[in-house]
Amino acid sequence: RAKLNGRDQMVMFNQSIRDEAQERDRIENSLRMAEENGELEVYYQPKIDMVSGRWVGAEALLRWTHPELGRVSPVKFIPIAEECGLIGPIGEFVLRRSLAQMKELIDEGHDLTVAVNVAPVQLRSPYFTDRTLGILGESGYPLHRLELEITESGVMESPVNIEQQISPIRDEGVRFAIDDFGTGYSSLSNLATMPFDTLKIDRSFVMSMAESEDRRIIVQLILMMAKQLRMQTVAEGIETETQLAALKEWGASYGQGFLWSTPVPFAEFAAKVREQASENALAAKSEPSAA
Ligand code: C2E
Ligand code: MG
Ligand code: MG
Ligand code: MG
Questions:
Q1: Where is each EAL domain found (predicted)?
Q2: Is the ipTM of this complex over 0.95?
Q3: pTM score, two decimals?
Q4: Which of 16, 59, 95, 199 suits a disulfide with 226, CB 3.0-4.6 Å?
């Protein structure tokens, strides 16, 4: 293959920047219409109690199907939504939709919680607290069954401000989780004073546990620290029985991962919850009663 000269390389470089900018503009423009066009859907990934194995809730994860581009990953479009000011309405859509859907199951008597992601940019809006409280109030959803997730790096950008923003919501019984823990740079003293109820260990730690004793020790230390701070723990991205066994032994409260289920549409999540509940009811009936 002929070697490209410097000028050709520069042309290609400029072209690839233009392509990227064009794609970004395209995503931004279609994202403005995505909700209206019915292209947004909330998927649910179950959260599992490590001791009982029971499905105790779900994390709500946004899915966008663009008419031409097809499925666009949230890893790609959420940062764009944050930059162009669309994350506010999109975040509110996810919150409303997930509260309404999970309320259906809770009203049927299922003992469930839902976790919804909040982007750092949403928290920086002076309207975040009031608007969120408004949505929660209108939803009729039992607020102690809601958890809001904020990434560790998001929290560290402005810890004082975040505390002021979330305290009035927390006072209503909503729990807060620190997401992707281990990928940001929070100091331990910060973590101890912040109003978080749950710590979610990032998937990268769970993934690398098999690699080295050092990684395993770090995961164990995070779990011990959370316990000392009286926080619940969720291990993200559990894919193998080996990971599950270790995390269970080290006292992680909950797990999430492809080992149980990928994120699925609400109907699929609901069907599985109902199926499990009727299996449990049958099992309870066939057991001799304690009395
Ligand atoms: P996250 O909040 O940390 O969500 C967990 C991500 O890990 C999800 O990716 C989930 O599908 C994936 N995951 C779960 N278990 C496994 C596993 O066992 N193996 C592997 N390989 N992956 C697993 P997803 O749905 O693509 O979302 C990526 C990120 O996009 C989320 O990370 C979150 O930061 C953001 N996101 C998604 N939905 C929303 C939303 O409604 N609002 C905001 N602000 N961010 C969202
Ligand atoms: Mg999350
Ligand atoms: Mg996470
Ligand atoms: Mg993560």
A1: 24-277
A2: yes
A3: 0.93
A4: 199
